[in-house]
Amino acid sequence: MANRKIILDCDPGHDDAIAILLAGKNPTLDLLGLTIESGNQTLDKTGRNALNICQFLEIDVPVCLGVEKPIIKEVEICDAIHGETGLDGFDFPRLKKQFDQRHAVNFIIESILSSKEKITVITTGPMTNLALAIKLEPKIIENIEEVVLMGGSYQNGNVSPAAEFNILCDPEAAYIVFNSNLKITMIGLDVTRQVLVYPNIIDRMDKINNKASLLFTKLMTVFNENQKRVFGFLGSPLHDPVTIAYLIDPSVIETKLVNCTIDISHGPSYGRTNCDIFDYLKKPKNAYIAMNIDVEKFWNIIEKGISRYK
Ligand code: BDR
Ligand code: CA
After folding, report:
1. With contact defined as beta carbons under 8 Å apart, do 262 and 273 qualify?
2. CA 42 to chain centre
C-alpha cells in the first residue's frame, strides 16, 4: 500500500515538536511539508522552532509560514507553558535551514490539487491556514482524505471552562472546517489528558540514547516544569502527537461519529466543541470524536518513533 500523504499544520510548541518527530520518519507516512500557525507563540517564533526541529532531526521537508493572525480575533499565545521561545529547553545548533517561500495557505492548496492521491491534513494548532485554504479554493475538499486535528473536548476546556486552546485561538476557523463536509477526526483533551509525560516516561525514552531521545527528554523536562508551575500537577499531557499516533495505528484511539458544532457566539462558551455524544439533537453527524485511548500502545508508538532516528 502507498504511504499516506500528509501535511502537518502546527505551532511548535513542545508537544507539536514531538508530533513532527513522529511524522518525520515513519515508513507509512509521506510528510509533504509543515505549514505554520501562530499559537503557542507568535508566527516568527513557531516558524523558527519548526525549522530548528527539522534541521536537528534531519527531516528534509518544506516549512511554510502561514497567516499571522486568526480570522477575527487577535493572536493569543501560550508562553506560560511553552516559554519565551515557544520551545524552551533545548539549545539547537546554528540555524541554516530556510523557509520555503510559498505561503502556507498556497502550499496546502497546491499540494492537494496537484496530488494524484488524497491528502490527509493534520492540524495541531489553530485551524486558520486550513480554513482559509478551504475558502480560497473549495475544490481542495474533494482531494482531502481526512482532517485529523488536536483540539476541542467533549468535556471541559483547558483555557476556559468550555474551550480548548487551539479552538479558542480561532473558533471561526474551526467553524469553517467543521462545516466543510470533510471527514474530521477530532482528538480532544478527553484523550490527550490521559497520556501524561511522567518522569518514568522521560527515563524510558532517554534510554534510547539518540538525538531524538535527547530532544524528547530535554523538551519534556521543561514542559513538565512549566505545566507544574501553571496547573500544579506533574505530568504534561502530550496532546499533539496523538494525531500522528492515530495515523500510524488507528487502533490507538476509539472514535465515535457525532454531530459537533463550534460555538462562535462570543459568549462564555465561545470556542466550545459541542459534541452530541448521545445524539440528543438528531442532527447530521459530521465528526469522529476520540473517546478513549490505549495509553500503553501510545507510548510504544512514541518509543518506536524515537528509535527510528540515529
Ligand atoms: C494544545 O494547545 C497547545 O498549547 C498545544 O500545543 C496543543 O496543541 C492543547 O490544548
Ligand atoms: Ca500545538
Report:
1. yes
2. 16
Q: Is the pLDDT of residue 2 over 80?
A: no
State how many domains the chain has.
Answer: 1
What is the domain range of residue 18? 4-307
Distance CA 254, CA 260 (A): 17
Q: Give CA–CA dist 79/285, Å, rounded.
A: 35
239 CA → ligand 1 middle, Å: 6
Length of the chain: 310
> What are 197-231's pLDDT values in tens digits?
999 999 999 999 999 999 999 999 999 999 999 98
Which residues form the pocket of ligand 1, taking CB atoms under 6 Å from any ligand atom? 13, 15-16, 40, 78, 81, 124-125, 150, 158, 164-166, 239-240
The answer to whether 190 is a known catalytic residue is no
> Any idea what the CATH number is for the domain that residue 235 is in?
3.90.245.10
Residue 259 CA, ligand 2 centroid: distance in Å: 24
Give the atom of ligand 1 at the shortest distance from the alpha carbon of 150. Answer: 8
Mean pLDDT of the region 271-276: 98
Conformational region of residue 58, where left means phi above 0, alpha means psi within -120 to 50, and beta covers everything else: left
Query: Rounded CA gap, 137 and 256, in Å?
Result: 29
Ion ligand 2 — residues with CB < 5 Å: 11, 13, 16, 124-125, 240
- To test the ligand 1 pocket, which listed residue (164, 166, 227) has its Cβ within 8 A of the most ligand atoms? 166
- φ, ψ of residue 107 to 5 degrees: the values are -60, -45
Residues in a beta bridge with 81: none
Residue nearest to atom 4 of ligand 1 (CA): 40
Across the chain, mean pLDDT equals: 97
The label of the residue with cell 534541521 reads: 55
Give the three cell numbers for residue 134: 478551504
Cα separation, 77 vs 100, in Å, equals 24
Tell me: cis bond preceding 13? Omega within 30 of 0 counts.
yes
Q: pTM, whole model, 2 decimals?
A: 0.98
Of 229, 252, 238, 164, nearest to 198 by C-alpha is 238
